[in-house]
Amino acid sequence: MAYDEGLAGRIRDHLSAHPGVTEKRMFGGVAFLHSGNMAVGVTGDDLMVRVGPDNTEAALARPGTRLFDMTGRPMRGWILVAGTALTEDDTLAQWIDDGYAFAGTLPPK
């Protein structure tokens, strides 16, 4: 499955100022990890964001979101944001920062 290279580039640009970020191909797309823990990624035209179980409901109340479900079993604490909801750089930056912040609460891998 191809993924939106433009969206990945925008994420890469935003995260360039964040310490401890690495990039890895996964889920047929690309993931950005904070100290070894996935924070955000791109699959198809969508942004994957690791928000954590406690933040899922609030995240799903924001425009363009849905549960991340690749196998018929939604992943707890993960959401997808439609690429069409990410046209504004500030909106994308907030999602990236949310994922980066949550991943930063996890023990490094």
UniProtKB/TrEMBL annotation:
InterPro entries: TfoX_N (IPR007076). Pfam families: TfoX_N. Residues 14-103 form the TfoX N-terminal domain. This is TfoX/Sxy family protein.
